[in-house]
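FAQ: What does a ligand-bound record look like?

Like this one, built around N-(5'-phosphopyridoxyl)-D-alanine:
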Amino acid sequence: GIVYLNGEFVPASEAKVSVFDRGFLFGDSVYEVIPFYRGVGFRLEQHLKRLRHSLSALRIPLEKEWQGVLDELVRRNGGGNVSVYLQITRGNAGRRTPVYDEHMTPTVFACCSPIRDIYAAGADNIAGIRVIVTTDLRWHRCDIKANGLLPNILVLQQAREAGADEALMIRDGVLTEGGSSNLFMVSNGVIYTPRLSSEILGGTTRELVLELAREAGIPLQEADLSYEQLLGADEVWISSSTRAVLPVLEVDGQQIGEGGKGPLWLRMYELFRQFHQRLM
Ligand code: PDD
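The answer part, i.e. the structure of the complex:
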């Protein structure tokens, strides 16, 4: 496919980044994953807002008209349903030194890959998943969408080895989020989710769940949630851009609720679908 690198659209095989790029040497970089359906960015504004937050946390001074770049990238790749990956590193220092010069030119990279339209799929075609719960080994700035993803990769690996699809993480007795998703649970008709802090990523899909729940008058609460509450919940869901909301059927091999996709999950999925249809 065609990728975007530092102002140019080039075939992926021709895109090259220096070995002295700080993204490569130090993970001195941030990213976004943005779904496009029929060539149109979904919740693009929210993703760009979070990107500005990540960039400013790293003090990377970069103002860009992102929408034009990403629309063009998707168009050059034939449009349709794709997930766009956008990464910005602090740039190429020419040598390996942790100290950086404030006037470096950031490296900007974007590519895209096909995804299925989870909203067109229909609830019957969405499979529930299994998760494990494990210790959150990450740093304390998880609100930054940074590329240092080793802890996330290790917990995902742990999930795979246990025959599960995602790992939820827990820190000091409080559930944080999934390796690449946010967490929700339902108890007695109330939706619960961990509150925003620097221990979790402010998911764009999480925000949409909250918006849609509020609009529909479904009670919801942002709170500290324990492992016991999770196991005792009627429903558990995860959310992320490319997966929307997925029902969790099993946590650490133990059945959640009735063991199937819950009624409130189905309602939320339908709310997502309607929201998505209004945009298309
Ligand atoms: N990850 N929490 C973590 C740690 C994440 O990596 C992600 C998304 C989310 C959900 O955020 P959003 O709803 O904005 O996609 C929460 C992306 C998809 C990834 O790394 O591939």
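Follow-up question: can I read anything off the structure? Yes, for example: The helical segments are 22-26, 44-57, 66-76, 118-121, 150-161, 204-216, 227-231, 263-279.
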